[in-house]
Specification:
Beta-Lactamase, alpha+beta, single chain, 616 residues, five-stranded antiparallel beta sheet, binds adenosine-5'-diphosphate, 14 helices
């Protein structure tokens, strides 16, 4: 099995990536929440610190505004005109001078009003004595500042004026004559300009009384309203004191709560149809039991937190994308590595297979070479056998031919012995000459035989094909004569070619041997050889008057072991050997029908002159 099919590819439907994605998104959401809460918390704390600082400043300004007037009731209470008035309250002159004093001081101090009451709370003189809505004759006994001044020496109170309807802060001290409290001197201060100041500064500031009713605020609609519900007792007291005139204090729609993890008080309210939330900081305003309230704008802090949250989300998504890309890269790399190692494995496997095949091939080549060598050896042996067989046949005639000279020699030897005995030296010499000739002929024949029987050598050189034909014809001459074969040849001399004469001798021996076999049993026994140079090619033809070649023999003529001869008479190697020798000489041999009636074998060898042969 290929290891590629074993590779586990991540399946698309696997729930693992979905779980991972959900976890990552949850983590991002968590990080966003964490960032948001921290930025909010930090922002809220910073805002709270700022608001507290701001509130301290507001408180200081507020106190300063009141302190500026604090000395006034005391100054009035100790003035001569007022003392005179209290010594003689019925005197119109004393009243007038008191009134004028108060009007004068009031104008100079910038207070709203200055007035004095008797011990029962009835107004004796006032700075607005000559104006409509003057306090003269009004009784303020129900006001706490009057009570407090008479009882404890100082009273202060914020209220809406019963006669003027204008709100103001009242400060009161007792007026003493001979150590007795005879009345009270009171200054009414205008605090409304503070509201304008806060508004101008763009701040939301409010002042709440002891009961929780806002009486001053940069937001005018908040005036005489409370943040939370008022208890009925407080409400009754406020009404009795007519603290805020005709206005009936009510609760305002101010939601309270917190933002995020912070425990800082947050007020939420409607600002002209837009819901907004502000951080609420309060500070007690000691003297009167009031509370200063500061509502800090949170839009910047919230925007900051939102931006930070979005940034955290984006950063988270970026990290996620980065991780995803890194993961994909890692996975691609892993797959690539796996594919590469798989490829390497397959290459190694294939290489191993190839080297095994190579080894097998090499072994086969060696075996084939060995078989070829064996075959060559066998063929050489067979060729040699064939040659010896041909020689054997030729020798049948030769034996007879050699016997004759041997018999002649024996006769001559006997006659020579006799002649020698007779001392006929002339005749002896003549006999010895004849014997020498006979011996020369015999040794020539044996030389030819030896030459023929010699094993092939591969040496090529300038040879004469005509000489080969002559040599073989001469050896077979006796066989021709024995068998009554008429042999003729017609050859141009020399037939110079580049070749091996021993091999060419064998060619002729085989062809003529076959021709003898073909004609020996025929009534007409003719063998003819012709040779010539035709168009630069050496052509040698062997004719016979035999039976010729039938179709089957014609097709398989040059195949080894194809023979029509009886067992023991032929191996079927003669023509195969001839064919091989002619091929080695770069020539060709063909077989056909001879005009003599039998077979015709034609050999064509390229004729090479000595110069060309040397170059070759
Ligand atoms: P062998 O002579 O041992 O049979 P050869 O290869 O020399 O082997 O010859 C093969 C066959 O070709 C012979 O058996 C014979 O049938 C045929 N043949 C060869 N030469 C001739 C010829 N001159 N005339 C007729 N047949 C021939």
């Amino acid at each position: 099995m290929s290891s590629i099919t074993m590779m586990r590819l991540p399946s698309m439907g696997s729930p693992r990536p979905l779980i991972l994605l959900a976890t990552a998104l949850l983590a991002i959401a968590g990080a966003m929440l964490f960032v948001r809460e921290n930025v909010l918390d930090y922002g809220l704390r910073a805002t709270a610190t700022q608001a507290e600082e701001r509130l301290k400043l507001v408180g200081a300004t507020f106190s300063t505004r009141i302190e500026r007037f604090r000395y006034l009731p005391e100054v009035i209470a100790r003035s001569r005109e007022i003392e005179d008035l209290f010594r003689d309250p019925a005197s119109p002159e004393a009243a007038l001078s008191g009134n004028r004093l108060l009007a004068r001081i009031n104008a100079a101090s910038g207070a709203l009003a200055l007035f004095v009451t008797d011990a029962k709370g009835r107004t004796l003189a006032a700075s607005n004595y000559d104006q409509p809505g003057s306090f003269i004759g009004y009784n303020y006994r129900f006001r706490p500042y009057f009570r407090d001044a008479i009882q404890s020496g100082f009273g202060s109170y914020y209220a809406v004026g019963v006669t003027t309807g204008e709100p103001g802060y009242f400060l009161a001290v007792p007026i003493k004559l001979e150590g007795r409290n005879v009345g009270a001197a009171i200054v009414k201060i205008d605090l409304l300009p503070l509201e304008q100041q806060w508004r101008d500064a763009g701040e939301l500031v409010a002042v709440e009384d002891r009961e929780g009713v806002i009486f001053l605020s940069s937001e005018p609609q908040w005036r005489y309203r409370s943040k939370g519900p008022l208890d009925p007792e407080s409400l009754a007291r406020i009404r009795d004191e007519q603290r805020y005139g005709a206005a009936d204090p009510g609760e305002m729609a101010l939601g309270s709560g917190a933002i995020g993890w912070s425990d800082l008080p947050i007020a939420s309210f409607d600002e002209g149809g837009v819901k907004s939330r502000r951080l609420m900081v309060d500070m007690p305003f000691a003297e009167s039991g009031w509370t200063l309230l500061y509502f800090a704008d949170l839009s910047f802090v919230i925007a900051q937190a939102n931006i930070a949250t979005i940034a955290a989300g984006l950063a988270g998504l970026l990290v996620l994308a980065g991780l995803k890309i890194a993961h994909q890269k890692r996975q691609a790399r892993r797959l690539e590595l796996r594919a590469r190692s798989d490829l390497e494995l397959r290459v190694a496997e294939r290489t191993r297979e190839l080297s095994q095949t190579n080894l097998k091939l090499e072994t086969e080549i060696v075996e084939r070479q060995r078989a070829q060598e064996q075959l060559d050896l066998t063929r050489d042996s067979l060729t040699q056998a064939e040659r010896l067989a041909a020689i054997g046949q030729a020798f049948a005639g030769l034996a007879h031919e050699i016997n004759q000279p041997l018999a002649a020699l024996r006769t001559y030897l006997a006659s020579t012995r006799l002649l020698a005995a007779r001392q006929d030296m002339v005749a002896v010499h003549s006999n010895i000459d004849v014997m020498g000739e006979v011996i020369g002929r015999v040794s020539h024949l044996t030389d030819q035989l030896k030459r023929l029987a010699r094993r092939d050598d591969a040496d090529f050189g300038d040879v004469d094909f005509a000489a080969s034909v002559d040599r073989v014809a001469e050896l077979l001459k006796f066989r021709f004569a024995d068998l009554g074969i008429s042999f003729s040849s017609e050859i141009d001399r020399p037939l110079a070619i580049l070749g091996n004469s021993a091999q060419l001798d064998q060619v002729m021996l085989n062809l003529l041997g076959n021709a003898i076999d073909a004609v020996r049993d025929r009534p007409v026994r003719v063998i003819h050889v012709d040779g010539a140079i035709e168009a630069g090619t050496c052509v040698v033809r062997v004719h016979d008057s035999g039976r010729g070649l039938d179709d089957e023999t014609q097709d398989r003529l040059f195949e080894p072991f194809h023979t029509t001869k009886a067992a023991g008479e032929g191996l079927g190697l003669g023509l195969a050997t001839v064919h091989r020798i002619i091929s080695n000489h770069h020539g060709e041999i063909t077989a056909g029908r001879s005009p003599l009636g039998g077979a015709l074998f034609t050999i064509r060898l390229s004729r090479i002159d000595s110069a060309a042969a040397a170059a070759e």
